Amino acid sequence: MTPGEIRRLYFIVRTFLSYGLDELIPRIRITLPLRIWRRMLFWMPNRHKDKLLGERLRLALQELGPVWIKFGQMLSTRRDLFPPQIADQLAMLQDRVAPFDGALAKQQIEQAMGGIPVETWFDDFDITPLASASIAQVHTARLKENGREVVIKVIRPDILPIIRADMKLIYRLARWVPRLLPDGRRLRPLEVVREYEKTLIDELNLLRESANAIQLRRNFEDSPMLYVPEVFSDYCSQDMMVMERIYGIPVSDIAMLHKQGTNMKLLAERGVQVFFTQVFRDSFFHADMHPGNIFVSYEHPEDPQYIGIDCGIVGSLNKEDKRYLAENFIAFFNRDYRKVAELHVDSGWVPPDTNVEDFEFAIRTVCEPIFEKPLAEISFGHVLLNLFNTARRFNMEVQPQLVLLQKTLLYVEGLGRQLYPELDLWKTAKPFLEDWIKDQVGIPALIRTLKEKAPFWIEKMPELPELMYDSLRQGKQLQNSVDKITRDLQRNQVRQAQSRYLFGIGATLMISGTLLLINKPEWEFMPAWIMAGGIVTWLIGWRRSA
């Protein structure tokens, strides 16, 4: 490690210990070395004993910076895994991170606008931020040109070096995983870290987020399920983004949603439907759907509509991954474990020499006890965790392209259970996936393919005779070339056989001449003539082989 990385690692360890987070280490035999090591660091005491554990965890992650804050945001959605006192504190990381100076934000906005004062373009600019997150913060204003209320998002200053330093250290630690864990190579830690780094760096480019928001808005135009605010792209740059200001109820404010008379069951189900629509219909999904980025419209609470913001992280799947994923989900829903095992092999997620029968039995062993519960009580996150542990025996590798999807699905499940604890994720998703599969392989898919390809075929149709003639001519030329190569090869084989025959005769004559010269010296010239004949035969054989 470099001195800088050692300093950063020391800072991380010191931060965790100064907030007393060693309390999170379970008191079991396997953690004994860690607990002994902690006692040796007696000069790093817990300096925040007056605070609860959840608050200490939040403050520590906040102090460590954006990489760790993002991790805390993901944990905050899993209220089924953490007690309320921890989940409530982590939820504050979603939009209540300590802001930076508003005057500095104004200066950055003016710099992004080419040095022109904010008042030239905006009225009522509020120097106090409306919200502050790990990567950026937002300020409210009003556009001069049309009087529309907007929010201005600006990147935190000097954040890139912090992210780079943390990711560099994480990369170095990831390289040790295959050496420290027996199946560490299967986890593909470097690929996972690389994917996580990419999503963080992408968030720093607000032009990318603007484009993502415009795309997502177009995908759900006039949809009753999701509304995406309008982006004013003329005012956007890499470090600044301007978009429509929205008013809604934070999705985490359950009390306010109930007071509003919101249909909580429909709201939870629509969250699942929005996710699967983005993944399977659009191949473009919002991959940062934590509660800080999701609101519910005040209008028509009986027919609730989500409002989505912060599209800095999006994900997509290729056609093959979507197909395998959908069929895997349906097979799980139907308890067809043989199909699940075969799909894992076909997709390449496990090695091709995997014993399908053994893999099927292992999956069945994990899933059957889970399905004994009512479907509404089954946590998809727990199913994934159990399958992940089971797959170690079958060398299943982590799929980096699915990491964002898995994280987003955990967000959606955590959010849905928070809104409506009786949410049946399986029942909500299964009809959607079955319809999607039918649409991909049935008559509609064939008609759609014909429509898509028809213009290309019509364009190429006049060229078909010429293409057929060229193809036949090239086939004839290829056949002639193959025949010529075959004839040359046969001639070479005959010449090589003749050459070996002559070498054999030459060797025989040489040996015979040498023996006669030794045993019959009185024959004078006879051995010499025989040896000369052997040399001549060799020369002829050499020329035949050339």
Automatic annotation (TrEMBL):
Q: How does it sit in the membrane?
A: Multi-pass membrane protein
Membrane-spanning residues where?
501-519, 525-542
Query: PANTHER family, from UniProt?
Result: CHAPERONE-ACTIVITY OF BC1 COMPLEX CABC1 -RELATED, PROTEIN ACTIVITY OF BC1 COMPLEX KINASE 7, CHLOROPLASTIC
Location of this chain's protein in the cell: Cell membrane
The organism encoding this protein is: Buttiauxella agrestis ATCC 33320
**GO CC entries:** plasma membrane
Please cite one Gene Ontology biological process associated with this protein: ubiquinone biosynthetic process
User: Which key words are in the record?
Assistant: ATP-binding, Cell inner membrane, Cell membrane, Kinase, Membrane, Monooxygenase, Nucleotide-binding, Oxidoreductase, Transferase, Transmembrane, Transmembrane helix, Ubiquinone, Ubiquinone biosynthesis
- Pathway assigned to this chain's UniProt record: Cofactor biosynthesis; ubiquinone biosynthesis [regulation]
Report the sequence similarity comment from the record: Belongs to the protein kinase superfamily. ADCK protein kinase family. Belongs to the ABC1 family. UbiB subfamily.
Gene that specifies this protein: ubiB
State the superkingdom: Bacteria
ABC1 atypical kinase-like domain sequence ranges: 93-344
Give the protein's recorded name. Probable protein kinase UbiB
